[in-house]
Queue: 2 jobs
Job 1
Amino acid sequence: MSEFRSASTPGVLLEIAVGLARDAAATARRLRAEAIFDVETKSTATDVVTAADKAVERQVIEALRELRPGDGVLGEEYGDAAGEGSVRWILDPIDGTVNYLYGLPQYAVSLAAEAGGEIVAGIVINAATGDEWTATRGGGAYRGDRRLKVTGPAELSQALVGTGFGYDARRRAHQGRVLAGLITRVRDIRRFGAAALDLCAVAEGTLDAYYEKGLNPWDHAAGGLIAREAGAVVAGLQGARPGLDMVVAAPPAIFNDLHDLLVGLDAAGGA
Ligand code: IPD
C-alpha cells in the first residue's frame, strides 16, 4: 500500500488505476440499476451530465486524495486540480453518457495517469459489460490478459472506420460534411458513442480506424495510449499531437491515406 503512495512507475500507476476504475464502473452500473440519473445539460441541450457522472467522479477524486494526495486530477465534470508533483490523473467518469442514459451497453470509465506531460498508464472499462483494456507506456496494451496487436487491412478502402460527433450543431454540420466525403472511400462507418471504447476497438481490431474532432483529454488519454501500445498510430493532423482539433487512430498501413483524406476534407476545420 505504501508503494501506492510513493512510487510513480507506469506499473504502479496502472495498478492504482485498475482498482479505482473497477470500483468506479461498479458504482456507475449500480446507479443505473437504481435509476439514479437526474439529468442536467452542459454545453448544449444534447450535452448531458447525469448525477452518476458526478458521483463516480467524486468517488475517484476522493480515493485519489487518500492514496495519492500530491497528484493532480483532471476530470470531465469537476475540472483540473493541480498537484504538487509531476503525476496527473485524467478521468472520464462515464464516457458515452448518452448511451448510459438510454441503456445502450457502450459506456465506460476511462482513467489515465500522466507523468511529466506523457500518458504512461491507462485503463478503459466498459461499465455495462465489465470488459477491460489496459496499457502502460512501452509495456504494451491488453484486453484482460490478452496482449493486443493491430493488424488491419492493407488499404483504406477496406477499412471499417469509427467516428463521433460533438454536441454543438455547427460543429456537427461540418462533421457531417467530412463524413459525406469519407464514406465513399472506406468499407463503412460506425458511430458507437464512446470515444474511449472506440480507441480500444482500434487496439483490438473491432474497428480498423477512428477519427474525431473535438475530443477532450479525458476522452482519449487512456484509449489513445491503449491504441498506440497495440501498434496503432495515434496523432492529430499535419504533425500535431492528438487533441481538440483532431484525434486519428489507425494501423500504420492505412494511417497516411486516412490522414491525407481528412486533411483534404478539412476535418480539423469548421466550428
Ligand atoms: C462523448 C463520447 C462520444 C463522442 C463525444 C464525447 P461523453 O463523451 O465519447 O462518443 O463523440 O465527442 O464528448 O460526453 O459521453 O463523456
Job 2
Amino acid sequence: MSASPNHSGKATESYDVVVVGAGFAGMYMLHKLRGQGFSVRVYEQGDGVGGTWYWNRYPGARCDVESMQYSYSFSDELQQEWDWSERYAPQPEILKYANHVADRFNLRPDIQFSTRVERAAFNETTNLWSVTLSDGKTVTAKFVVLATGCLSNARMPEIRGLAGFKGKVYHTGHWPHETVDFTGQRVGVIGTGSSGIQSVPVIAEQASHLTVFQRTANFSIPAHNAVLTEEERQAFRAKYPEVRHFARVESRNGIYAEVPDRGALDDGDNERRSKYEARWNHGGLTFMSVYNNLALDKIANDTAADFVREKIAEIVADPETARLLQPNNHPIGTKRICIDTEYFSTFNRPNVTLVDIKSNPIEEITTNAVRIGVKDYEVDALVLATGFDAMTGSVAKIDISGRHGQTLNQKWAEGPRTYLGLMSEGFPNLFVITGPGSPSVLSNMMVSIEQHVDWITDCVTHMRERHLAAMEATKDAEDKWVAHVNEVADSTLYPQANSWYMGANVPGKPRIFMPYIGGVGPYRQICDDVAAKGYEGFVMTGAEQPRKVAAS
Ligand code: N01
C-alpha cells in the first residue's frame, strides 16, 4: 500500500489492486497477486471469508460437485493435507475450508471485512480507479477485480403481503448465522431450485408440517452422498495430477469424469436404460454426461428426461403428487440440474404437502398464511428458496463508471457485454472473475476461478514489466466474443428454458444466455492464445505515470 495526498490534503490509500469480495475467487486473487509483489486490498461485505458459502447456510446446503474436486488445486500441500469428510461436503465444512485457507496463507491482514464497495470510478487522466467504501473512505487502485460471485445477490420475490407476514421469513441465500430450529412449526418453502430441493428433506424432518409451493418442477438426480474413507481420499489424492489436468484442459465442465463417445440414439432402448440406471445409481452431475448429445438434440434429451420422470413416478407414492413433480416445460439440464438427498421421497411423508402454484399462483401472503384462491395455507415460518439475480446482480449493485462517465449498468442495460467474460470495453483495468461470457456457472467454479485468477495475474504482471498504464477490451473483440457466446448457446437446447442462466427469473432482466457454453478446456485455450498473441483484442496504452508514494 502507498498513500498520496488528495485534493483535501488528506492521505489517500493507494493499491496496485483492489479486489471486491473474499469468496474463493477473491481469496485466491489476493494470494496470487501478493505472491507477485503487488499491493492488494480486498473488501468484503460479510464479516468472514467464503462468499456464497458464507451466506448460504440453509439446512441441507452442500456442494453439488464432489469436494475432492470442488477445492483449490493451486497448492499441492493444501490438497494433500485437507480431509474432506464426505463425497459432497456440507456448507459448514466448506466454510471451515475457506477459513483454513485464509489462515494457512495469512490472507486476513489484507482483507477488510464488513465493508461494501459502493462506487468505483475510472479517472482517465491518472488511469486510476477511485473506490468508495461503505465506511465513507475512498481508496485508489490501478486495477479493480470484481470477485463478487455469480450467485450472491439473493432475490426476494415480489409477492403481495410478504412484508406483513408475522412469522419469520428466511431466504436460503441469506440465512442467519445462528441455528434455525423448525421443530413443531408449520413451515412453507417457496421455490424448488437447488436450494429448495436441498433444504426440503431436512426441514421436513423438523417441521410439524411442511408445505412446498412449487412453480416449476425441476429435474433432480440423487447425490448418493457418503462418508469418504481414508483409503478413498488417499486414492483420489494419488491421482490428483491427472484429475486436475483433465478438469482444466480436457473437460467441458471442469469435472473429472468419463467422456461420452456416443449419442443417446446410438444405443438401443435396453442399453440406454441400463446406462441411465448406472449413472442414477452412481449419483451426481455426471448423469448428464452419459451421452454426448443430451444438450444438443431434443430427441436424445427426451430419453434422459423420460428416464428421470419415470424414476419420480416410481419413488413418489401419490400419483398426482408424482405428476406435479415431473418436470415438463424444459429439456433436462437446460436449467441447472439439482442434486438431492431424498427429495422426491420426502413427499411420501405424512407431514409434507406439495402445492402447485403454476396453475394457481399465490395471491398474497397474509399475516399467517399463504393465500391461493380461497384457500389459506397457514404457516409459522416461510423459507424463500427463490434464487438470485445471477451473474450480473452483484456487479450491478456497485456504481461503476468507466470512460466518459458511462456506468456499467448503462452499458449492460440490454444484457452483459464482455470480452472473454473478463473485461468490458470502456472500463479499463477492471476485471471480472468468472464473469458473464465465461464458462463460470456451467463449470466446477473452482477450476474456472483458478483459471481467471492465473490469467489476470499474468496479464497485470505483463503490464507492470512494460510499465503500461491501462488495458481495455476493444469494441470489435467484444462484439465478436458476444456474438460467439450467443452462437454457441443457440446451437444447444439451453436457451429453451426460462432459467437464471438466461436472466429469465428476474422480471425485466434482459433475456440473454450469460455463461459461455463452449467448454472449460477450449475456453482456456482461447484465453491462453489471446495472451500469447500479446493480449489480442485488448489495447494496452501509455507509460505509467509515476505515482507519488508518501508512505508505505
Ligand atoms: O435458485 P433457482 P436456487 N414465486 O433460481 C422459484 C446454485 N446452488 O437458489 O423456476 C414462486 O434455481 C423458482 O420458480 P421458477 C445452483 O447453481 C448450488 O435454488 O422461476 N416461486 C424456482 O423454483 C443453482 O442453480 C447449490 O418458476 C418463485 C426457485 O424459486 C443456483 O444456485 C445449492 C418465485 C428458484 O430457483 C440457484 O439455485 C444451491 C416467486 N415469485 C444453489 N420466484 C449447490 O449444490 C422464484 N421462484 C452447490
